[in-house]
Amino acid sequence: MDGLLIGPATRRQALFASVCAFAILLTLALAAPRARDALPGIAPFMPMCALTVFTTSSIAAFLLGARFAATRVAMLAALGGAYAFTAITVALQLLMFPGVFARTGLLGALPNSAAWMWVFWHAGFPALVIVAELVRKRLPAPPFARERLDARGWLLIAGPAAVAALLGVLVTHVDLASPFRDVADAAPAPASAIANNLAGLVICALNLIAIALVLLKGRLRLVLDLWIVVALLASFVDAALNTLSIERFTVGWYVARVFSMFAPGVLVCVLVWEVTALYRQLAEEHATLIRASARDALTRVYNRSYFDEQFREAFERAARTGQPLSLVMLDVDHFKHYNDAFGHLHGDACLGAVAGALAATLASTLHTPGGFVARYGGEEFALVLPDTGADEAAAVAERARAAVEQLGIPSPAAGGLVTVSAGCATRDAIVASSPNALIEAADAALYAAKHAGRNRVSHAGASIA
Question: Which residue ranges run through the membrane (predicted)?
């Protein structure tokens, strides 16, 4: 099972992703004209956003790596590498940023170290998404090449993380010029502001190329395609608004920080949703397996194992509450002769029909929850009747006997129809007993019915003490 993330997207999922994409673009259209408008400064906002991006990107990288380990889909490993790269670069940018942990930044930060880490962060993510799309179908996962693919896959995750660390070393040892030009010297138009910042222009272009490649390669068929496009749109808006206003505490700066958190956060939400959906699916399949294991494969009524467990529980419950508990044992008359005459396939069909008649009788006559029909063994069945006294149990047994006879199944035995014999026994409401004693009493009553001529109901002489 590949999982929901790389499964086909439903119409509802596509609609929801489209609404998110529209909201992102609408926000850009509203914020861009006022990107450089100053707002009150909130100093902790930037480190809070950076920590959020680091946390969500780390979680996304881990979950994508786990999905790669389970599916061996190389694209997931490459996307995990993109988010690992983001986590490390944003962490380094936060540590190097002047005034957050130290006046000039940590790690021996130079004047433009934090700015360059921001550039690497925002350029690296779409660039690595492009890599993920390029390896989408070039690294299949054939069974005979799993070890080789594993090595390539883990390299796709570890490689970007190592590159991010090396870039951190670079910007703290080489005094690079500022990647941004002061937009105050540029024309006031937003497009002019972007054009005068080559780094921002390159980042925006990388995001658009990555979006185009996802659309071209995946055509939005997969759930993953939908949300990668949404994440790339958020990354594009983040870069565009930051390029429009490199000054802190402006409309563009604040909105860009929100989208910087959204880009990894949206995929984390999808991954967590996938895990939740898979757990729910697993729970449903487990419940189905449990139900199937309790059923007799031939007759579809409960099997002997279920009877042994549930009958003991019903008996103990009756002992605690003082309520009656009745057991009806039924046996198909002359079933060996029926098999000999018609063959085992017809014999199997006969048992299935008898079981269906017994189940229908129980469903229509027993109003107390907990009663059930079970195949006790061979051609023998059991009806467990909680909160049912001896007279009522005998009436249920008689209706069950009549229902089988009314099936009209031809038989080579005397009478010409398939019939059943039944024995009833009821636990005494006052004196304690054991489950085996009740079974033995019902068996004894069944044998009495067979010895008396079959196709009849026999009762245990008294309630079982």
Answer: 41-66, 73-95, 115-135, 155-174, 194-215, 222-241, 253-273
The catalytic position among 379, 380, 405, 440 is: 379
pLDDT of residue 276: 87
- Looking at the structure, tell me whether residues 129 and 199 fall in a common domain: yes
Give the pLDDT confidence score for residue 185 in this predicted structure.
45
341 located within any domain = yes
One domain, residues 444 and 321? yes
Is the domain of 198 the same as that of 337? no
Counting as low any pLDDT under 70, the low residues of the chain are 1-4, 138-149, 181-196, 367-368, 429-432, 461-465
Same domain for 132 and 156, yes or no, is yes
pLDDT at 464: 43
Catalytic residue list contains 379: yes
On whether residue 315 sits in a domain, the answer given is: yes
Tell me, what's the pLDDT at 110?
94
User: pTM of whole model > 0.85?
Assistant: no
| Count of structural domains within the chain | 2
Q: Is 297 a domain residue?
A: no
| Domain end among 254, 289, 324 | 289
Range of the domain at 221: 11-289
